[in-house]
Every structure is written in structure tokens, then in C-alpha cells.
Amino acid sequence: MPLAAEVRPAVSFATLAARVRAAVEGVASTDPNPVDPFRGLYVSDDLAVSLARAEPELELDDRLAGAARLLGLSEVETAVLAVCAAPELSPRYGRLYAYLHDDVTRKLASPTLAARLLAEDGFSAAAVLGCFGHDGALLRRGAVRLLDAGGPTPLAEKLVKLADVLSAHLLGGSAGAPARDPRLRSLPAPEHDPGRAASIAELRGLLERESPIPVVVAGPDAPSLVASALRRPLLLVAAADAVDTDLLREAEITAAIEGRQLCFDALDDLHPESRGRLRDVLGARGERPLLCAASPDAVVALGDRTALVVEAPMPSFAERRTAWAALAGVDEVGDVAAKFRLSVEQIAEGAEVARLVAAARGEPAPGPADLDRGARQASTSRLAELATRLKPAFEWSQLVLPERQLEVLTSISAYLRHRDLVLSEWGYERTVARNQGLKALFAGESGTGKTMAGQVLARELGLDLYRIDLATVVSKYIGETEKNLDRIFDAAEGSNAILFFDEADALFGKRSEVKDAHDRYANIEVAYLLQKMEGYPGAVILATNFRQNMDDAFLRRLDVVVDFPFPEPPDRERIWRLVIPDSAPLADDVDIEFLANQFKLSGGAIRNCSLGAAFLAADEGEPIGMRHLVRAVALEYVKHGRLTLEADFERFHELIRTGNGKG
Predict the structure, then answer these.
(1) Does the structural domain 396-564 have CATH classification 3.30.1200.10?
(2) Do residues 251 and 285 make contact, with C-beta atoms less than 8 angstroms apart?
(3) Mean pLDDT of 625-631
(4) 113, 308, 457, 603: which has the fewest C-beta neighbours closer than 10 Å?
(5) Cβ atoms within 10 A of the Cβ of 385, count?
(6) Which has more pLDDT, 62 or 544?
(7) Helix ranges (DSSP H) in 132-258
(8) Could you give the CA distance from residue 59 to residue 90 in angstroms, rounded to a whole number?
(9) Residue 56, SS3?
(10) For 4-51, how does the pLDDT look when each residue is reduced to its tens digit (9 = 90+)?
(11) d(C-alpha 118, C-alpha 23), whole Å
């Protein structure tokens, strides 16, 4: 019969007290030198007998039995646990154990002492000593550990330390729970529906069946889905930390005592050099490992070991809507659920932000803007390290474009707002094989509104907008461009941001005949960017000043192309009126129609002229007059290398020719 299977009557703390008293009295009765002059350096016979005969103060038998059930201990292991726990729970036993060890420093139990005390209860020495094997439940579950005192201490004489969390549990928390290692993270069973019912049902079916094969749950909210499938809370340990033996021992006992399922997450972050060590640790645990990862590709960390991978998809539009409504406490959540593809965990964080922002204003519930703000801040992003965030400062009314271009831009807004509804809920994803992202090209001369249009879309949708200068991404060194693109799209993962690639023609130039390896490689770079764009679930906008340099083959792979024409006089007049604030002081001689008809300026240039004229007027302490505006136009011409012809400036030509600005 295996040692762990040996069954004997349970040992209570009262029984243990009797065994200790008998052992102490036996030692005291055979003391060969009761008048030892060094008696003060150790526990005397009289004191030991007095301590042993005192009434036992421990009444923790129920807690001991409960801990044994949680740890799955046999009768002999439970008895050994009682022996090892006694000095941790009462100083009296520490002094008595020191007396029995004949060493005042040895106040904890040892395997030999445990076997000696339990012998009268019918437990064989072999059964007791077998409890201290590394494959036994006490050491494997982290309930106890053998202290290494240094030097050649025999295994049976090593002191046994009870886990602090187990001591606190046996004392009912009266001594205060020990500080937990911050690498151990508790995850309660979800109070709200995490969705993904099919994944949870599959996972539950797998976990209900005994098997040594590891289970890897990959995807967003993976730990929450595991907790839902098990209907119990989790104790999470990063896979990279699981190779720490002491931490794993603490995790084992903490999970057992708190009734949690131990689960290893962040498998994706495990360094390749640690993979072999993790496999060894998981293989030695004796129970099926549960692991969580962001991507199913992380299963490579388990090497040749077979694993069951359960892929958890992003929550659907309907699931996100349900989560937002439950967590934010409002019903009108369809818009934020459609625009932001977040996990339920992120939605919980975003809803908390939205509620706090609303409460700070004294509002009982968050509004649409609060929900958008919470969703933006809950979106994971490291883009700020690699790109410039543009403030969405403009509205549709400020964007001056022909009707056709405006219609195309509003269709982009409609797509990003309703893509989940149309593609997923209505089933178009299955019939047209359309991915969730959107690839657009904004083409037009500098200053015609390409960046402004991106800002308008971001404001309309409540999304972040990041600008990346593609000219700085492209490298002359083979392979570097792809690495730069990888860094950008990896940082954008989960951001829900609109990516605005400026100077796109730096890479998307028209292809000519491939003459050498570098030409061929340039085409590979372009194909790689298109591949990354197609894999991004949000909107990617390429901006170029030279559409004629773009290859038609690449244009066909984009979803939307918007041409930004140079503004005609009516549009320029409207732009002039928009960029001069109503609060700005204007002189009576300002002729907006003249400015719009005479000067062929882009919207960006008109904005510069308006601002420049305002500073000229402020410097003179006068309202903005025609002379300030014309001088600002002349300065803009000079900046772009254009001639200030009399035909353009007419009656103001002398003013800008002399440069005195006062006629």
C-alpha cells in the first residue's frame, strides 16, 4: 500500500498536546544532569514539564480539517500538518520542540520529531517521513517547506516551516494575513456576462474531463473566460514568474486556501530562454496546467508538448453593447460599442472612467462623450512613442470641399460606426469576405485639407488620430522599413485609433521596371505595408501630395480614394470667412471677395495668411485691415517662392512692393 494511502484515526491538537507531554516527561525523567550549571541556555526539565502539562490553548481542529480538505491531504499528511503547525500557532510548542530537539534554536518540527510524536497513534515512521517527499501533497502544494540551515544537515533533521498564508488561515486571520507577493494576482469570477458563450462551453467541457494535457486559452478576456467556465475565482501568475520555485510554492498554497484555480497568464511575454524551464515546472506540478495568452501563437512556448488551444474571439458587437449597458448603467451605448472594439475587461475600465467623469460634473449617468472618453482611455496603445497624436479640433462645417468628396468622407464615418452591425450582425462578412478595417487614400496638394479631414473624422467618431510620417519610416537599409512598420502596427494593436500616414508617396511611388535587387525590394516593402494595413482592424489613411505618382495596382487595393481639389474662388471665400474669428476686430476696408478671387491659395495657406495678418495688426494696435491681409498674402507667396505680380495684387501692389504697409 502506498505510504500516502495509509489511513489512521485523525490527530487533534488535544491529542498532539498529550503526545508532546508524554515525550517531554520521558526526556525529563531520564535527564542525567538535572543540576547542569548551563541550564539557563536551554529549556530546563522543570520548565518543559510545566509547559507540557498546561492546558492546551489550541482549539483549531475544525480549521485544520478544513485546510486538509482544501489541500487534499490524507490522514497521515493531516497529522503531520498538525505537528508542523503547532509551533507556528503557539510559542509554547516552539519551546517544547526546542526541548525535545535538545537545541534551544530548533523551535520548529522536523521529520524525525514528527515521526516520534505520531508513533503512538499508529503511524509508521516510514509513512510520516514519506510525507516530506517532493512529490507529496505537503511540499507540492506549498503547505510546508524544509529549511536549509546550511551545512550537511540530514534530511530527516531539517526544520519544517509552515506557509505563512496557511498559518494565517488556521488562526482565522487573527494574526493578520501575510503580505502577498505582488506577482500573485486575484481575479474574481465575473459578476457580468463576459459573452463568448460558445468558447466558455467548449472550455468547460474540456476542463470537466481529467487529462494531463495543458489547456491554453488565447484571446481577449482569456482569464475571465476561464473563471466563468470553472465558476470559481482565479489566482494568476505570469508564465515568466512561474519558474520561481518559491513564488510557485506560495501560489499553490494561496490558491488552495482561498479556493482559487491557479492559472498562468501572459504566455506571450515568456522569453525563449525560459521556455524549457517553464515546461519542466509545469510537468512537475502533478495537475493539468491552465494557461492564458493573447494569441494562439504563444503555444510555441510549450515546445513539443501537446496542448489544447481554445481561441477566444473579440466580443461581438452585441456582446460589447450588453457589457457597456451593464457596466456604465445607461441604455444608449450602441454608438460606443460599435466604434470601439474592446475586450469586456477594457469595457469595464472604460465604463468606470465614464462614470467618474460624469460624476465629477454632477451628472447621475455618463453621456455619449463620456463613454467615448472612457473607451479611448481604455484602449491599449503605445503609439505616442512612435507617432504624433493630433487633436481633433475641427468639425464638418469647417471642412470646405465639394459635395462628392464630403459624401465619400461621410461614408467612411458611417463604415467605422456601423461595420460590426453590417458585417457581423447582418452577415455581410460571410458573403463579401470583408475584413473589419478600412484603407483610404487622401490625395491632394499641400494645404487642401487632408489632415483636417482626418481630424474631422476623429472628432465625429470620438476616436484618437495619430499621424506617422511615412518618409521617416522608409529606410534605405534592407529589412529596416519592415521593422519600423512592425513597431508601429504592434503599438497600434488594440488602440482603436485612426492611423494617418503622411507623405505616402515616399513608399507608394509608381513602379517602373525592376532593374535591380533594390527596386524589387521596394516593391516588397509596399506589399508589406498593404499587408499590415489589411490586418489592422481600424482605419488607416494614406496621405499624398502627388496622386499621379501612385501606382494604379496599389490604388485598387485600397477601399476609398478621396481627391482633395485646390479650392476655387467660392470655396476660398468661404475658407477666408471661416478662418477669421467672429471676435477678431476687422477694419471696414476688408474685402474678402477680392482676396478669394485674386489669390490662388490653398486652405492651409489662407489660414496662415489670416493668422499672420492678425499678428501684424496686433503689433500696430489696430483692427485687421486690408493692408495687413495683403501683406500676409505677400509673405506667404515669398515662402512658396511665388512672384508678387501686380496683376494679382492690383491696387495693393505698391503697398507690398514698398513693404511699409501704410500705403
Answers:
(1) no
(2) no
(3) 91
(4) 308
(5) 9
(6) 544
(7) 137-140, 164-170, 197-207, 222-230, 245-258
(8) 11
(9) coil
(10) 444 444 566 777 777 777 777 777 666 555 555 444 445 655 565 655
(11) 11
**pLDDT-derived band at 624, boundaries 50, 70, 90:** very high
Cell of 318: 452585441
CA 133 vs. chain centroid, Å, equals 39
How is residue 344 written as a grid cell?
Answer: 469586456
- Fill in the amino acid letter for 489: F
DSSP 3-state helix, strand, coil percentages of the chain (rounded to 5)?
A: 55, 10, 35
Long-range contacts of 301-308 (CB under 8 A, 24+ apart): 301/239, 301/267, 301/270, 301/275, 302/214, 302/216, 302/275, 302/278, 303/275, 303/276, 303/279, 305/214, 305/279, 306/213, 307/213, 307/214, 307/215, 307/216, 308/206, 308/213, 308/214, 308/215, 308/216
Give the whole-angstrom CA distance, residue 232 versus residue 446.
59
DSSP-derived secondary structure for 299-315: GGGGTTS--EEEE-PPP
178-182, 430-434, 517-521: the lowest-pLDDT one: 517-521
pLDDT for position 43: 61
CATH architecture observed for domain 569-658 = Orthogonal Bundle (1.10)
Of the candidates 471, 457, 375, 469, the residue with the CA atom closest to the CA atom of residue 408: 457
Q: What's the CA gap between 304 and 288, in Å, rounded?
A: 16
CATH of 317-379, one of 1.10.8, 1.10.20, 2.10.240, 1.25.40: 1.10.8
